[in-house]
Amino acid sequence: MSDASDPFPSPTPEDDGAFGPEFLQDLTRLFLWRRDVRHFLPDPIDETALETLFDLACLAPSVGNSQPWRFVRVEDPERRAQIRANFQRSNEQAAQSYDAARRADYLKLKLQGLDQAPVHLAVFCEKDPPQGHGLGRLTMPETLYYSAVTAIHSLWLAARARNIGMGWVSILEPETLNPLLDVPDDWHFIAYLCLGYPARMDARPELERLGWQNRDALCRQVLRR
Ligand SMILES: Cc1cc2nc3c(=O)[nH]c(=O)nc-3n(C[C@H](O)[C@H](O)[C@H](O)COP(=O)(O)O)c2cc1C
Q1: What is the CA angle 201-202-205, rounded to 5?
Q2: What is the DSSP letter of 198?
Q3: 51-109, pLDDT tens digit by residue?
Q4: Is residue 3 part of a domain?
Q5: What is the pTM for the complete model shown?
Q6: Ligand 1, closest atom to CA 207?
Q7: Which of 30, 36, 125, 206 gets mutated to test ligand 1 (max ligand atoms within 8 A of its CB)?
Q8: What percent of the chain has pLDDT above 90?
Q9: Disulfide check for 187: which of 49, 77, 124, 220 has CB 3.0–4.6 Å away?
Q10: Adjacency order of strands within the sheet including 165-169
Q11: Confidence at residue 7, expressed as pLDDT on a 0 to 100 scale
Q12: What atom of ligand 1 comes closest to residue 208's alpha carbon?
C-alpha cells in the first residue's frame, strides 16, 4: 500500500490476497521493532502520512462493524499543558502507590513523551454508536472498547512501518478529559497517544532494558485445556 492519493486501491484481478515469505519476514520484523516510544525528535509528521495512518486504523475490526473509535487531535497549547499537568498529578499518585525501593525505580522511568511529540491524539470510544445496530455487544458492551483498541494497535503498527513512533500514555485521570477536549459525555476515554519520529530505535521494550519488567515466557500465556 502506498501513500498515494488513494490509500486503498482496489485489488487487481491477479491479487489473490496471499502474502509471500519476504512480506512475512518484514511483518515479523515490524512486530519485533514496534515499540512504545517516549523519546521523540521535534520534526513534524507529514500530514499525508498522518491521514494514511487514520485511514489504516479505521480498517480495524470492530464489534458489529460499529467503528466506535473517535480520534481527537490535541493541538491547542493550553489543552496540552493541562494534559501535562494531569499526567504529573497521576504520576505522583502512582509513585506513591509503591514502597520506597520500587518508587525510586519508578521515578527513574520516562513514561511519556508529551513535551516532544509533535502529534497528540486522544482516543475515545462512542458508547452507543448507531453503526452496527447493537450486533454482538448486548451481553458484552465492553467489546466496543476492545474495538477501539484494535484501531489503536493498527495505528501503532502502521506508524512504525513508516518509521513513526507512538507512545501510549495511560497515567492520566480520565474524568476531566471530555470537558477539557470538548467531546460528548458519552464518549469513553480509551488512550492518549503521542506520535512523532523516534529519537532512537530499539528492538527491546524500554521497561525491559531498564530492568522494570521482562517479557514472560510464552508457556505462561498459552494454556491448553
Ligand atoms: C493500554 C496501555 C497503556 C500504556 N500506558 C503507558 C504509559 O502510561 N506510559 C508508558 O510509558 N507506557 C505505557 N504503555 C506502553 C507499555 O509500557 C509498553 O507497551 C510495554 O512496556 C512493552 O513495550 P513495547 O510496547 O515497547 O513492546 C502502555 C501500553 C498499553 C498497551
Answers
A1: 140
A2: B
A3: 999 999 999 999 999 999 999 999 999 999 999 999 999 999 999 999 999 999 999 99
A4: no
A5: 0.95
A6: 21
A7: 36
A8: 90
A9: 124
A10: 69-73, 119-126, 187-196, 165-169
A11: 66
A12: 21
Atom of ligand 1 nearest to the CA of 38: 11
The Cα 62–Cα 132 span in angstroms is 9
Query: Which residues approach ligand 1 with their CB closer than 6 A?
Result: 35-36, 38, 111-112, 168-171, 205, 207
Domain of 85, CATH number, reads 3.40.109.10
Burial of 111: CB neighbours in 10 Å, binned 0-12, 13-18, 19+: buried
Domain that holds residue 57: 36-210
**225 in a domain, yes or no?**
no
Q: What grid cell was written down for 99?
A: 514502597
CA torsion sign for 82, 198, 156, 202 is: negative
Strand, helix or coil at 188?
strand
Buried (b) or exposed (e) across 100-109, using 16+ Cβ within 10 A?
A: eeeeeebeee
Number of domains composing the chain: 1
Q: Ligand 1 center to residue 17 CA distance, Å?
A: 32
* 187 CA → ligand 1 middle, Å: 22
Q: Beta partners for 124?
A: 70, 189
Torsional sign, CA 57, 59, 61, 66: positive
How many Å apart are CA 25 and CA 162, to the nearest integer? 16
